[in-house]
Write a structure and sequence with these properties.
Oligomer: heterodimer
Low-confidence stretches of chain A: none
Strand content of chain B: 25-35%
Largest sheet of chain B: 6 strands, antiparallel
Distance between the termini of chain A: 26 Å
Helix content of chain A: 10-25%
Order of helices and strands of chain B: HHEEHEEEE
Strand order of the largest sheet of chain A: 1-2-6-7-8-5
Mean pLDDT of chain B: 85
Helix content of chain B: 25-40%
Structural class of chain A: alpha+beta
Order of helices and strands of chain A: HHEEEEHEEEE
Number of helices of chain A: 3
Mean pLDDT of chain A: 89
Number of strands of chain A: 8
Strand order of the largest sheet of chain B: 1-2-4-5-6-3
Shape of chain A: globular
Number of helices of chain B: 3
Distance between the termini of chain B: 35 Å
Largest interface: A-B, 41 and 40 residues
């Protein structure tokens, strides 16, 4: 797990998400942080496939990846100490995910006191040809860092 | 509604070979769930607890992404069941609502039903729980594009 980020009050929550998480390790999730923006990667591995015959990534793996991307983004914009709780996620599958690395980015649509809404997108060879996109709502407003 | 021979055969096949199918899907095998029951257009599965699918170490709480994978897979399987061909559908979209966190160190049961089919789309809904459906962990609703005619082909053609 690589985190590329300066010291920041959100580090414990991100560490917990990335380094102390068995499932995050299972899918090989990596994150680069730039301020409050992120670029995430899920490097290709055989265990992420959903269909071996056509070498297609599993839709659930891609959705789980974007759920993590979205969670990381919420942590960065909201100063939460604890991991934000997901309320729901809506996943749109645009294209088949191929046997390549998957990249992800997220954007906060609305940051409320209780709910943060995040759009996230995943792509492979072409940034403009999203493989999957998601919209998720997270509950925040628990303990905060200063 | 009388089954086509293909659908009935698929159900019989699933009844005895369901977990060979799961074994052939790498990420499903990695998550480690097993199909336990196959009905008309409904599939039921059990996801045994294991440490490697947990979100936070030592919490015993299975990650949301795992539940998403489980419900996505089962919704797709239920639509394939209705179509009489497992490769006949591709997920268009899926919406997961989380009612509560999973209970630590506890297996999850999920069931999915393909409740409506048009010429081009299958609609499915699913639920995840521990003991009883009324104690819901998460619900899902999905739309699946039909990529092959009714049971005509096992070829999985997906849009580019």
């Amino acid at each position: 797990m690589m985190i590329d980020m300066p010291n920041s009050p959100n580090r414990p929550a991100l560490n917990q998400l990335l380094e102390d998480s068995p499932f995050t390790n299972l899918i090989g999730f990596k994150l680069q942080v730039a301020g409050d923006d992120i670029l995430a990667t899920m490097p290709f591995r055989e265990t992420l496939l959903g269909n071996v015959m056509i070498s297609a990534l599993h839709g659930g793996a891609m959705a789980a990846f974007l759920e993590l991307v979205s969670t990381a983004k919420v942590i960065l914009v909201s100063n939460e100490i604890d991991r934000p709780k997901i309320v729901n996620i809506s996943i749109n599958y645009h294209r088949q995910g191929r046997a390549l690395d998957l990249f992800g980015a997220a954007r906060v649509v609305k940051k409320g006191r209780r709910i943060v809404t995040v759009h996230a997108e995943a792509w492979q060879s072409h940034r403009e040809k999203a493989v999957v996109s998601t919209i998720a709502n997270f509950k925040v407003g628990g303990q905060q860092t200063d | 509604m009388p089954d086509s021979p293909l659908k009935a055969n698929l159900r019989e096949f699933l009844d005895s070979n369901a977990n060979k199918i799961i074994d052939a899907i790498p990420f499903a095998r990695e998550i480690g769930f097993e199909i336990t029951d196959v009905r008309e257009t409904t599939v039921v599965a059990r996801l045994p607890y294991k440490d490697k699918i947990v979100a936070e170490a030592e919490s015993g709480i299975i990650a949301g992404g795992v539940i998403t994978t489980l419900l996505d897979s089962l919704c797709g399987l239920s639509c394939g069941l209705r179509m009489g061909s497992l490769g006949a559908v591709a997920t268009l979209d899926l919406r997961i609502d989380y009612m509560r966190a999973a209970t630590p160190y506890t297996d999850i049961i999920a069931e999915a039903e393909c409740y409506h089919k048009t010429r081009s789309v299958c609609f499915s809904r699913a639920i995840a729980y521990h003991i009883d459906p009324s104690d819901t962990i998460a619900t899902a609703a999905g739309a699946f594009a039909i990529t092959a005619p009714d049971g005509a082909s096992d070829n999985d053609k997906t849009a580019g």
